[in-house]
Design goal:
Layout lengths: L6 H10 L3 E3 L2 E10 L6 E10 L5 E7 L3 E12 L2 E6 L4 E3 L4 E4 L5 E7 L8 E8 L3 E8 L7
Antiparallel strand pairs: 1-2, 2-3, 3-8, 3-9, 4-7, 4-10, 5-6, 5-9, 10-11
């Protein structure tokens, strides 16, 4: 099941809702996008702030929006930039902010169940090694450039 919310409703929810929180972790400025309406893949980007006193690790992500959801990054191999699955996840040092961004670390949606449409919201479960699961409602923003 894909959770779809109108742009106006998503904007209202985001204005009222604080950033997503789990034990010692906070997700800020999350957004998702696909490259085109017919794309079979998409991605989510965000800042993860570890406000706790111990290191943690984002180990996986899941969502009904896609057949598979993986943690990815980009690596340069010779003259070619490749996207690769990061099986060990992303380290989240205590007291630091880790940025998932275009061209770097991100949550990858593969085999989209339907188009990602501007203004809708997708539910993504982030699983952390220490803090456990956190469900994040991520707005789809196909126009965002950063």
């Amino acid at each position: 099941m894909i959770l779809r919310v109108s742009f106006a409703a998503a904007a209202a929810l985001l204005a009222l809702a604080p950033a997503a929180l789990a034990e010692g972790l906070e997700v800020r400025d999350a957004y998702a996008r696909a490259s085109s309406p017919a794309a079979m893949s998409g991605a989510a980007f965000m800042e993860i702030v570890n406000t706790g006193g111990t290191d943690d690790r984002l180990v996986s992500a899941a969502s009904d929006i896609a057949a598979r959801v993986e943690l990815h990054t980009h690596v340069m191999e010779g003259d070619v930039m490749r996207m690769v699955h990061v099986e060990e996840g992303f380290e989240l040092p205590a007291g630091e902010t880790v940025v998932l961004e275009r061209g770097g670390r991100h949550v990858m949606f593969m085999g989209l169940a339907g188009p990602m449409e501007q203004g809708e919201t997708v539910a993504v479960t982030l699983t952390f090694e220490q803090a456990g699961d956190m469900v994040v409602e991520i707005p789809v923003d196909l126009e965002r450039q950063d």
